[in-house]
Amino acid sequence: MPNNQTAFLVNDLEIKGNLVLAPMDGYTDWPFRSICRELGSSISYTEFVKAEDVLQRPQYIKDKIHFTEDERPVFIQIYGNNAYSLLKAALILQKLEPDAIDINMGCPNRSIARRGAGAGLMRTPLKVARIVKSFSRSLDLPVTAKIRLGWKDCRNGMLLSQIIEEFGGSLIAVHARSKEQGHEGKPDFNALAEIKDRLQIPVLGNGGIHQVEDIENMISATGCDGVMIGRGAVQNPWIFSGRNRHEVKPVEVQDLLLEHLERSLSFYGQDKGLVFFRKFAAGYIEPYGLKREKRRELLMETNSDRFKMLAAEVFRNI
Question: How many CB atoms lie under 10 A from the CB of residue 220?
């Protein structure tokens, strides 16, 4: 759906367009989010931040929750396993005036989930009910959540979705895989369709989106209100403009790579900016089949001017 049309509402907040960049730790920083927003992502989700970090070391998460007015709507994502700390942190984050606070209940990372946060929260439905209820009663912003279908031994995505809606959630994003699947395996469209059919609040589908055709297939099979795109967007941010990567000319890739690099350098500084950009550079050049030595030379370069020269050489030889 073109992003000048209202795709769905989060309470009374109009969301223009039905494609959304998924929150990804270490990836959805301001430089990348701003690029995806300009290309058509209709919501800017921040990287997740730990509740205790918000409370105890706010400087540590400052860059993660930075946003600009032209990014709106902006949803700040938070995670943790303590209901009291989560609410306290959410009240602090509310002062930054985002458009919503999102609760991460889907991160499959073992160190997070085993402590009862991320996907670990899905194993405690009563706690989820208390958290969502306290958020919706105490915040002046919409409360949203991102979940999975559950765990292998506890496929309770439907139950959690209904709890989130019942206790005041305004939108839910569902990664249509189990915790154990991580980012592998085929998403379960049937389970996602069942959740969408039961809920009145908007549902975003997530998982396995790499081509424009994948977006169309997910919407057709599930009826979800929008599609959330994560890893597929790192190699192809143009997917938000309805273009597969092979349709993007090398000169466009080079231009965006350099623009993204400049934003990263401006945001983080010359040293960190290039280091943090490397993983994105790897995505930009991945389809071109560079020889291992040439790829390594580019991605290990520590001087930004030299990096630009090496990048120009790469694109001259494509």
Answer: 10
Question: Per the structure block, which two tokens stand in for 216?
Answer: 């169309």
- Looking at residue 149, what DSSP letter applies? S
Catalytic position from the list 36, 107, 154, 224 = 107
Q: Are strands 226-229 and 171-175 parallel, antiparallel or unpaired?
A: unpaired
Do β-strands 13-16 and 6-10 pair in parallel, antiparallel, or remain unpaired? antiparallel
Question: Is this structure's pTM higher than 0.90?
Answer: yes
Residue 82 and residue 49 in contact, taking contact as beta carbons nearer than 8 Å: no
Closest to 145 (Cα-Cα) out of 205, 117, 88, 105 = 105
Domain 249-316 carries which CATH code?
Answer: 1.10.1200
- Average pLDDT value for the chain: 95
User: What's the one-letter identity of residue 134?
Assistant: S
Q: HSE-up of 48 (CA within 13 Å, CB side)?
A: 23
Q: Strands of 17-106 (E only): list them.
A: 19-21, 44-45, 49-50, 74-79, 100-105
Determine the 3-state secondary structure of 174 from DSSP. Answer: strand
Domain boundaries, the chain: 6-242, 249-316
Residue type, 163: I
Determine the Cα–Cα distance for residues 88 and 67; give it in Å rounded to an integer.
Answer: 21
Task: Quote the radius of gyration of the chain (alpha carbons, Å).
Answer: 19
What pLDDT is recorded for position 5? 87
Secondary element (H or E) of residue 204: strand 203-206
Residue 300: pLDDT above 80?
Answer: yes
Q: Which residue has the tokens 């690029």?
A: 35
Q: Report yes or no: 162 and 131 within 8 Å, Cβ to Cβ.
A: no
Does domain 6-242 correspond to CATH entry 3.20.20.70? Answer: yes
Residue 2 pLDDT > 60, yes or no?
no
CB 47 within 8 A of CB 29: yes
To the query of whether residue 36 is one of the catalytic residues in this protein, the response is no
Alpha carbon distances (Å) from 149 to 43, 106, 126, 153, 177: 22, 9, 17, 11, 6
Helix/strand/coil for 7 = strand
